[in-house]
Amino acid sequence: MKLPLSLLSSALCIIAVAAEPPVQLNGWYPCSQSSLQADDTDKGHPDQYYMETSSDSKTRRRATAEAEQTQASALPFLQQSFDRLFAQHGDWKQQGQRTHHHHSTHHKSAEDATPGIPQYECAEFRVPMCYDGVCESDNTIDVFVKRVKAKSVADGQKEKALWVLQGGPGASSTGVEGLMNTMYLELDRQVSVYTFDHRGTGRSARLECQAAQAGALSSPGGSAIRLDELPACMDDIRFQIDNQTAAFSVTSAAKDLAAIINYELSDQDVFVYGLSYGTYLVERLVHFAPASVKGFSVDGIVSESGDTVEKRSTFSNWDHDVGVVGDRFLAACLAEDFCKSKFPDVTDLSVFVHELYDKLDAAVVDGKKGSNACADALSSNGMKPSYVLRSTFGEYLMSDRMRIAIPAVIYRASRCTDQDADALGYFAEGVAYSEEDGGFGDSEPETLLFDSDMLYYLIVFSEMWETPTPDKATLVQCHCTTFTTPMNSGGATCGVRILASYVKENGVLKNVDTSCMDDLKPMKFSDNTVDAQELFATNDLYESSGSDW
After folding, report:
1. Which of 259, 458, 471, 504 is the most exposed place for a label (fewest CB within 10 A)?
2. Among 84-98, 183-197, 275-289, 303-317, where is mean pLDDT lowest?
3. What is the secondary structure of 355-411 as a DSSP string?
4. How many CB atoms are closer than 10 A to CB 167?
5. In whole angstroms, what is the distance from residue 321 CA to residue 475 CA?
6. Which residue stretches of 170-306 are H helix?
């Protein structure tokens, strides 16, 4: 018997809908604010692992382990993302380290919670591995979400929620846990704050080479995945994900967020904040526009649009973009009296630095030694002096504490007295030690346990790279060309205050308080935020004395 066309169409629609399973929640459970530190206020049971139930109380669960064995690897660009910049600034992380958190009973009310200590909860949402129109698989994955719920709601207002999205790509939510706490307190505990590990990272189906073991500390490349390890690693991961690489695209991650918001927060006013790569994810979420989302905020924008390569954010033009900022930084040096006094005859510090690079490299070309003591000191680890300086300057530029040391290094390398050569030798040893110790922070717990190289590579080279790939000469031309917003009055940064005001004012831009912009702390090259002893083994960044050694 043949079905009527209308019935057949309906049947096909039912099949299509059934192919995408509904979102499921496994429940909200008490958890700590920090994923990287033990909760000292709740030690649990002496045997370190237990499950306790009671007939007259809700089930309480707590599990602890002596050590986490999961290994991962380093992400080459993550340290230069805004999430690493915030970590270097330290304010949010230190706040998280100072704050201890109590594990409340499952779904325990805020009124019963310990006064003054935010109560965090964690959950897993089961979502389709493949959304309709993205890829094809009946599998599901679990997405990890963390929140701190509002204790009260302002009179006459609807409940609100703020999502804080991490950068990367490939970074988990651990880097923004301190920011979650900062925003929660800045919003007077009247707004729930959420974050999640976007799929492929952390506790959300993290992409890792479990069988191939690439990226493990015991692998040939250690925690970094070597080129010769990639083929086996890719085969391993493709097996794990049904060969559906599109399942771990930016679009899939944005659909996760939309699905979770629609499931959990459809009756609240929701605001979404993203930083660095997180802004790219926010822009993708805009396309799906969950009805409850009332506003989007992007910080350190990675734009998904642009009519030219120079205007579009891609990782293939990363060096070009950093070079633009580096040139502006060096121009700012000459515009300040203190910094200008170190280079009195220089009119363009960028040109001066490039000439210095050439001079230093020429002094050690083909293994030469003895013509320039500073070039010898900087090349002691086998790298060109210019490479040591370029890569280090690129790292320092991203740190509001370390960037003022850049002119001091340039000054010493140019003047090059015997004392300068000694200081730069000490400096080069520190750079070499950092690289041997893992470079780019890959020995940090958050990278070893939660970040994913392979998700980084998957997204960067499929969605955030020029097509066709620029030739090597083009990339080398811009490679390392030259290498937050604290307040004068202290306290929360201006960015935090503006974001909090945006949420409090329900996203009405004309009502947002931006007065903190008038109190921004200017950059001063004479500040003593850098430890000269740590950098040069001297008492001063620019000068040496007999007492230094």
Report:
1. 471
2. 84-98
3. HHHHHHHHHTGGG--SS-HHHHHHTTTSS-HHHHHHHHHHHHHT-TTTGGGHHHHHH
4. 27
5. 12
6. 177-186, 230-240, 250-264, 277-286
The answer to whether the beta carbons of residues 525 and 336 sit under 8 Å apart is yes
Is there a contact between 219 and 159 (Cβ–Cβ < 8 Å)?
no
456 vs 331: which has the higher pLDDT: 331
Residue among 326, 416, 321, 422 at smallest CA distance from 371: 416
Buried (b) or exposed (e) across 428-459, using 16+ Cβ within 10 A?
Answer: beebeeeeeebbbbbebebbbbbbbbbbbbbb
Half-sphere exposure of 203 (CA within 13 A, CB side): 15
> Closest by alpha carbon to 269, among 190, 195, 199?
190
For residue 477, count other CB atoms closer than 10 A to its CB: 13
Q: Where are the domains of the chain?
A: 24-31+70-304, 315-436+525-548
Cβ contacts of residue 407 below 8 Å, gap of 6+? 330, 333, 339, 342, 343, 525
Q: Which stretch of 92-96, 360-364, 366-370, 444-448 has the lowest confidence by average pLDDT?
A: 92-96
Cα 530 from Cα 524, distance rounded (Å)? 12
Three-class secondary structure of residue 435 per DSSP: helix
Residue type, 467: T
Angle between helices 277-286 and 250-264 (to 10 degrees): 60
Place of tokens 């066309």: 5
User: Residue 479's pLDDT band (boundaries 50, 70, 90)?
Assistant: very low
pLDDT band at 225 (very low <50, low <70, confident <90, very high): confident
The size of the chain, in residues, is 549
pTM: 0.74
CATH 3.40.50 assigned to 24-31+70-304 = yes
Q: For the segment 281-323, what is each residue's pLDDT rounded down to a tens digit? A: 899 999 988 999 999 988 877 777 766 656 667 766 667 777 8
Question: CA–CA separation, 445 vs 431, rounded Å?
Answer: 21
The token pair at 479 is 């490679």
Asked if 215 and 224 touch (Cβ cutoff 8 Å), the reply is yes
CA 463-467-469 angle, to 5 degrees, is 110
Cα–Cα nearest to 392, from 343, 432, 347: 432
Q: In this structure, are residues 11 and 19 in contact, taking their beta carbons and an 8 Å threshold? A: no
- How many C-beta neighbours within 10 Å does residue 197 have? 26
Phi, psi of 128 (to 5 degrees): -65, 140
CB-based contacts of 116: which residues, under 8 Å, 6+ apart? none
Cα angle for residues 129, 248, 212 (degrees, 5° grid): 100
- Cα(407)–Cα(542) distance, rounded to whole angstroms? 9
Distance CA 478, CA 466 (A): 15
